[in-house]
Amino acid sequence: MNLILWRHAEAEDTTPDMKRVLTKRGVKEAALMADWLREQLPPDVRVISSPADRARQTAQALTLDFEIVKGLSPGKGVEDLLAAVDWPEAGNDHTVLVVGHQPTLGQTAALLIGGAEAPWSVKKGAVWWISNRVRGEEAQAVLRVVMSPDRLG
Q: How far is CA 97 from CA 13, 101, 103, in A?
């Protein structure tokens, strides 16, 4: 299984939290990352997003159909994210792209790669691509790519 964690791009610092929208810079970051992702993604990718406006705007930059998943809302945890993507049970041929928030994305990356939740930071607008594989009888998570919009523009 391929799990792609995409943190929403830069958003305005306003309230209420769920209604925060992308800044002009955030719109540019989302577009740059979306252009890069479209070149990398398999055609059958499943894209899911937090219902927060800033996450939905980030997902919309990809111009692919996506699902809104309440379990990806700000304040939800790693277990909610992993349940939403069915990690790792979904199988090797599945790719799921999650548009979400800190600290959950960083904690998820830490758990899958390092074996325990930790306060890892995922930069705004950045993507962490993690694959699951089995070697012998051992399940392994492999970090495939970390990309941020400042490397693309």
A: 25, 13, 17
